[in-house]
Amino acid sequence: MKQLYITCLDLEGVLVPEVWINVAQKTGIEKLKLTTRDIPDYHELMRLRLKIVEEHGLTLKAIQEVIGQLQPFEGALEFLIWLKQRSQVVILSDTFAEFAKPLMEKLGMPTLFCHNLTVEPGLGKILDYHLRIEDPKRKAVKAFKDLNFKTIAAGDSFNDVSMLEEADHGIFFRPPAAIAAQFPQYPVVQDYQAFKAELSKHLPEPW
Q1: Domain limits for position 157
Q2: Structural domain contains residue 170
Q3: What is the pLDDT of residues 136-193, one digit of tens each?
Q4: Is 160 a catalytic residue?
Q5: Out of 10, 98, 166, 198, which one is annotated catalytic?
Q6: Which residues form a coiled coil (predicted)?
């Protein structure tokens, strides 16, 4: 039986800029620059973000307006086209469906697994966040392995480590040096050409 492959990519930091950092820059709210690179516990990070959003009266619409102005990293779309010729591709992200659509459209609408927000009707106030499942990235990769896919996972931060551990092959894309040093077992790439070269060690030729 022919081996099937699936590549699981993080979204922010790998294909597009960090949403919350850009919201922080637009609004001047410095604490919104914190990401999972700074606070590994996702629940702690999101509770902090929601508290800040409430304190400053930021609505979903205001955040969506910032997101709508973001562009994928240069070369990201071409990279995805290259990858889809060699592997199934799924984006495993800790973003939210309410944030992601404009970015997905600019990336050619790849498959995305992410989370959801509860928003107050009419007012656009963000009330809460809901994970699809605990430890979703690891569990998604495990499920793909159970479906007999050879799995590759790539990300840039602490919240990606669980899927790198679970995958047959894990790769860091532009991680902070401290995170890369903490997990030296994973190769580090800094651009899409190097990313392609590393992936090519594990993926078949184009279909």
Answers
A1: 4-16+73-115+132-200
A2: yes
A3: 999 999 999 999 999 999 999 999 999 999 999 999 999 999 999 999 999 999 999 9
A4: no
A5: 10
A6: none
